[in-house]
Specification:
166 residues, alpha/beta, globular
């Protein structure tokens, strides 16, 4: 059986173009990929998690995908501006540390339109904020999830030193 893989999902600029109608028009394409990977779970890493309850956010997803949206990252308050760089990744690693026994070996990736949110670029699927998640992004996500299934490791990740910055 394939181990669980986690997708940390941003909304604005991913599920819909940033600055346009928040209609989640790209979400069905993300869900189509998820349906091919039963082991994939979604963790919301969007600022929306601070505005809406988890149940309200989960309600945006198709009924069959909702059980696979398993949480939202914690909110960390930076002490100074320099801590904003990589903040989403630190929040994601904190979530993993709370929910997975071995963060260093966990299969995870992020869908986001802001590269400064994630320091581990090999695990970031960067979308274009003007278009949101596209068919090209879907192909890239499939390649990443296929790699997780095949047990291909990504570049070394040292969570202990990473989490100390938080």
């Amino acid at each position: 059986m394939t181990e669980t893989s986690y997708i940390f999902l941003d909304f604005d600029g991913v599920t819909h173009p940033w600055g346009e109608v928040e209609d989640f028009r790209c979400l069905p394409l993300i869900e189509a990929v998820l349906r091919e990977y039963d082991e994939a779970r979604v963790v919301i890493a969007s600022d929306w998690r601070m505005l809406f309850s988890l149940s309200k956010l989960v309600g945006r997803f198709a009924e069959d995908i909702r059980p696979r949206v398993i949480g939202a990252t914690p909110q960390m308050i930076p002490k100074h501006g320099a801590e904003l760089h990589g903040l989403r990744e630190r929040e994601a690693m904190a979530w993993l540390a709370q929910h997975d026994a071995d963060v260093a070996r966990t299969a995870w990736c992020a869908l986001d339109d802001a590269p400064g949110n994630w320091l581990t670029r090999s695990r970031l699927l960067l979308t274009d904020f003007k278009s949101g998640f596209t068919a090209e992004d879907a192909a890239a996500l499939r390649r990443m999830l296929d790699g997780f299934r095949a047990g291909r490791s990504l570049p070394a990740f040292r969570p202990s030193s990473f989490l100390r910055r938080a």
